[in-house]
Amino acid sequence: MGTSPTPIGSDSTIDAGLPQTVEFDLARARRETPGCELVTHFNNAAASLMPQPVLDAVMGHLTNESLMGAYEAAAKANVGAVCDSLANLIHAEPSEVALFDNSTRAWNTAFDLLTLRPGDRVVASRSEFVNGSLTLEHAARQLGIEVEIIPCDETGQLSAEALRELMDERVKLIAVTHIPTNGGLVNPVAEVGRVAKDWAVPYLLDASQSLGQYPLNVKEIGCDFLSAPGRKYLRGPRGTGLLYVRSEILEQLKVPTPTQDAGTWLDDHRYVPYEGARRFEVGECYVAGRLGLGTAADYALGWGIERIWNRVQFLANRLRSQLTSLPRIQVRDLGVVKGGIVSFTHEYLAADEVMRRFSREKINVKASPGRQSRYDMDARGLDSVVRASVHYYNSESELDRFIELLAAME
Ligand SMILES: Cc1ncc(COP(=O)(O)O)c(C=O)c1O
Q1: What is residue 183's three-state secondary structure?
Q2: Domains of the chain
Q3: In a designed cystine with 160, which of 191, 208, 209, 289 is the match (CB 3.0 to 4.6 A)?
């Protein structure tokens, strides 16, 4: 039995009832993922296993660089198509996409493009990743801005109503993390978009954990910026990332410090930045990685993002309910809609120890430490959680073995 496709982007239309079963060509997904032969990979929130086509794109270009020269190889490659693929994935225009090396630089670039003054307020989700939180706290000291955390509702997701109550003329940025690093929560980002629009306040969305697992539509979400890396749920190579910048906001932003590849130098004293988001890029880059990133976007689109989202939710939900039946285990995921990151604690084993024991069995999980999501973990009194993040290529039998081993951990 198949599930009906999840409508794209708008929170109100995403079914909070999780799929019970999903039609999915698992054999193909695993055949095309060489790592599946060697390891059970439940660390997709750090970096997914690359599929063969991504590997081929990266290795093929590196080979070309070594055989014909790096610049000559780049001239023959279609690097321009990478932004087309990413734009398709998030329903943006290609000119609204800039390529980066990771999500942190993309996020910080967006933040630095805003003009913030002493007394301005920034409201941020409790789910912010360490980088966003540190950048905001740094700006509070350096620029004299005020940082406030948007309260959560009783389920633990960001409360759009509470956000609305926080708003006033002094709020100059809404910063929200869609899916946090430390759990399955999916924040109601389109509701946030409506508040941002009503107040005409820039909205910066960290989609690091949602790109590749969730059907992102920047228009329906209503964000002005979206940052994400390529290596996580999108299954691209490390050292890649993107920043979406809504075209209408571009002219309100600071002009970035000129670089030779981000604009045209007309004469000794005049420089014009490129029209679109490309003006934020630095030219010298990991071309093989970028080609792999474009291939990863096409590959995900080939599977269908709604299909991926349904499969990921199905597996994560299955794992959560298996975990719930174990003594000594407490599932820690918050919210109404939940994605592929499953977080839990063991009554007396530290998260690091659980990770080590799984590693001996060739199962990759991660101990997610409090410092990576301090606003949230401090609020919940948690030092760390075990993070088992599943992707569509994981199998039900991998989940069962995981549960068996965990049940036997003393
Ligand atoms: C929610 C979230 N935001 C941002 C980041 C940072 O991404 P990057 O390491 O690509 O800079 C991460 C990385 O784990 C993350 O989970």
Answers
A1: coil
A2: 11-50+304-407 (3.90.1150.10), 54-302 (3.40.640.10)
A3: 191
